[in-house]
């Protein structure tokens, strides 16, 4: 089911129900949309109208209608309209693990510029960047993700051989963090669960999943936060249930990750905030 802001709000975000690690949105913003933030997923999108401007890797980028945007996990970026008319776009957020299922231990594809006109990526994103009102079935999404992973690797020039490092240890760490995200997880635990020393494991995790174990754990907590907020839970309850020290701790991480406070995020997605 899609959520939509009231018509009285000039900025809006429509969200499709996430399916197996992929979130799809369509949005319209005027002026400043997002503060600087970073998340642990790929953000891949297309500008539909206006000029979509953002800071990325120490430069200002501008995406025009029809351009494809590819933001790598854990890279800081913001978002704003490049002109007074505002901008409209669609975006998918893809967990790196889904691409690793296809690439099988190769380094994650990285596109330096953030914006591309490469026809291979335009074609590979067509299915996933349909209107959020269109419901993808799981097989259709899986096929599209396979095509997109191969297109990203080809455009980025990712080597065909596996990257150095222990992919299986990194995957065990990811599974362990998934199962224990709502509590404190120590490095000693991860070492015991993976059989890998903390320094090597941290390097492997970033190579294969694009972020650190700590950031990955924090993001799983924030995923739970968003689900609970859309269910009208209070901010204090959500913070405690998701494993944050308190409400302000959760809010700081939310803003750094999504570029919006929880209250602003609820406003543009059509949720209702409770204190």
From TrEMBL:
GO terms for molecular function: DNA-binding transcription factor activity; sequence-specific DNA binding. InterPro entries: AraC-bd, AraC_XylS_family_regulators, Homeodomain-like_sf, HTH-like, HTH_AraC. SMART domains: HTH_ARAC. Residues 171-268 form the HTH araC/xylS-type domain. Coiled coil: none annotated. It comes from the Bacteria. Keywords: DNA-binding, Transcription, Transcription regulation. Pfam families: AraC_binding, HTH_18. This is AraC family transcriptional regulator.
